[in-house]
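Notes from the 1:1 (GR / supervisor)

We went over the backlog. Supervisor wanted to see one worked example end to end before approving the batch request, so GR pasted a single chain during the call. The sequence is below; no edits were made to it. Supervisor asked that the structure be written out right there so they could see what the output format looks like.
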Amino acid sequence: MNTRNHNPLPVLCLAFFVVTAFTALLAMPRHVTARLVDLDNPALWGEHGLDEPMLHDPELADAGRQNAFAPRLVELWNGVLLNPQESVDAKCRGAQAIAQAHRKSMAGLDATLPTLVKIAQAEGQHPLLLQAAVSAIIELDGR
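Structure output shown during the call:
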């Protein structure tokens, strides 16, 4: 025999929700409730612009975005690549940044080619730095 007391609060909350929703539905104008019920009717979808909305991405207007670059970037990247006190990681990031800037259509990156070629031809370079420099040269179409 179960002697525990049951809490009536969840049942009362559910009943309140059902009564409130039903009352709100009855209070709506007839044309609104008819539309709510008829949304399952595909004939109405075209009228309301609901032509399979889940199957299409929203159309976004072209923002006309243009990349803008700081004027001293080429000078800074060359400085990092030429500075013997910079870490290998900093030089790799500089070479990778040059390649990425080229992919984003930055102009004037040809000035970095001599520095990148110098790094690629130097003896005893770290393999990661060598790879980053050669990748940047290939990206810039330097031969």
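Supervisor's comment: Residues 102 and 140 are 7 Å apart (CA to CA).
Batch request approved.
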